[in-house]
Amino acid sequence: DALWQQANDLVAQGNLLDAVPIYLQVSDLWPDQPTVGLNLGIVLGGLDRHEEARKCLQRAQDLDQDNPHILFQLGQIYQQLGQPEAAALSFLAVTELDPGFLDAWLSLADLSLQCGENDVAQQYLDEVFLIDLEHPAGNFLMGNLLLRQGDNDGAAECFAIAYKATDDPACGNNLATVLGQLDRA
Q1: What is the pLDDT of residues 123-168, one digit of tens each?
Q2: How far apart are CA 116 and CA 185, in angstroms?
């Protein structure tokens, strides 16, 4: 328990590299605990050690097939490894296990936008908005989708919602750009 706490404390302090050997010790002591693999996978991913992270997360998934958090992290690692199909399958599995897992819907929408699949992205964003109409990341992605579709007024509304909620410079930049296009300086 002390090693587990030490590793988690190091992560909380931002010392990811120092946490890795401790998590590895814990994984030897607790080989049947999927949370250890999940945490180690997250840390390795944060260190851009994506292939190692994938292996840890897959071991964790083998121990706990129905854990949406493990599947979500695995999807993110697949994205980092340039495997969008595998990432999408992981995110879809998350939504089947937990339809309220907004980050999985958002990741699916983002992947769809990156692939130019606007209609599919719209479907995933509709799932987000069934849960939270004011979701900042959902509105940011929807703003980008509407901008692509030539709906500058709709995009401005979405970017405004996202910017108001987050003060994120990317949201503000997109909002300013679309307002400029609408001659609303």
Answers
A1: 999 999 999 999 999 999 999 999 999 999 999 999 999 999 999 9
A2: 30
CA-wise closest residue to 102 among 147, 152, 140, 64:
140
Tokens, residue 161: 């919602």
H helix count then E strand count, the chain? 11, 0
Buried b or exposed e, range 142-177, using 16+ CB within 10 angstroms: bbbbbbeeebbebbbbbbbbbbeeeeeeebbebbee
Q: Cα Rg for the chain, rounded, in angstroms?
A: 19
Residue 133, judged by CB atoms within 10 A of its CB (0-12, 13-18, 19+), counts as: exposed
